[in-house]
UniProtKB/TrEMBL annotation:
One of its GO terms (molecular function) is DNA binding. Residues 150-215 form the HTH luxR-type domain. This is DNA-binding response regulator. GO terms for biological process: phosphorelay signal transduction system; regulation of DNA-templated transcription. InterPro entries: CheY-like_superfamily, NreC/VraR/RcsB-like_REC, Sig_transdc_resp-reg_C-effctor, Sig_transdc_resp-reg_receiver, Tscrpt_reg_LuxR_C, WalR-like.
Length: 222
């Protein structure tokens, strides 16, 4: 299946470089480019993109608000958003994940990593750059002025589901979760799906936020 990609960045040279890279992949095509968040929302509706590579900082409407509007649009329910940021300490990333982004990458990531990230998010996985993401979320969500939680806590989960959630929050994928807990990859995937359903989480990125908000995982834990 060819992944239809929309590129949203206010810098024309950056968009051109990303477009060249994405177009070089046999399983991807660039269907539209946006220079503002507002354009990204409009083109998401008209270009039938599967995934949007979204810059955080853009004029008119920033990437966070654009992501929020896309996630709230029922007609765009299947569209994934991969946020790009200049630094992995950009605290706007947490807002983007809350808004519905499926993950993020820093802009200086290697070309092959960006293509792999697009494939991963388009396939329904989430939470790219897991190490930086976990550290960032831990710091921001445990600050005094952190926003109130937006999803249910893990109280209704079974002990096994809590174990799985804790590992997901530390950046492990389904295969790594399975190996750590002695499960089959399919069982680990089933647990993750059930946890998302119970918590009302859109994807793995939001599971990480829930885990840190609830205190199930704390900064520095291994």
């Amino acid at each position: 299946m060819t992944v239809r990609v929309l590129l949203a960045d206010d810098q024309g040279l950056v968009r051109a470089a990303f477009a060249m890279l994405v177009s070089s992949a046999p399983d991807m095509e660039v269907v539209a480019e946006a220079g503002t968040g507002r354009e990204a929302v409009e083109l998401a509706r008209s270009a039938r993109a599967d995934l949007i590579v979204m810059d955080v900082r853009m004029p008119d409407l920033d990437g966070i608000e654009a992501t929020r509007r896309i996630a709230a649009d029922e007609d765009l329910a299947g569209v994934k958003v991969l946020v790009l940021t200049t630094y992995d300490t950009d605290e706007h990333v947490v807002e983007a994940l809350r808004a519905g982004a499926s993950g993020f990458l820093v802009k200086d990531t290697r070309p092959a990593e960006l293509l792999d990230a697009i494939r991963t998010v388009a396939a329904g996985e989430a939470l790219l750059s897991p190490g930086p993401t976990a550290r960032l979320i831990a710091r921001v969500l445990r600050s005094p002025d952190a926003p109130a939680p937006t999803a249910g806590g893990p109280e209704g989960l079974t002990e096994r589901e809590r174990q799985v959630l804790a590992l997901v929050a530390r950046g492990l994928n389904n295969t790594e979760v399975a190996e750590t807990l002695g499960l089959s990859p399919l069982t680990a995937k089933t647990h993750v799906s059930r946890i998302m359903g119970k918590l009302g989480a859109r994807d793995r990125a939001q599971l990480v936020i829930v885990a840190y908000e609830s205190g199930l995982v704390t900064p520095g834990e291994k």
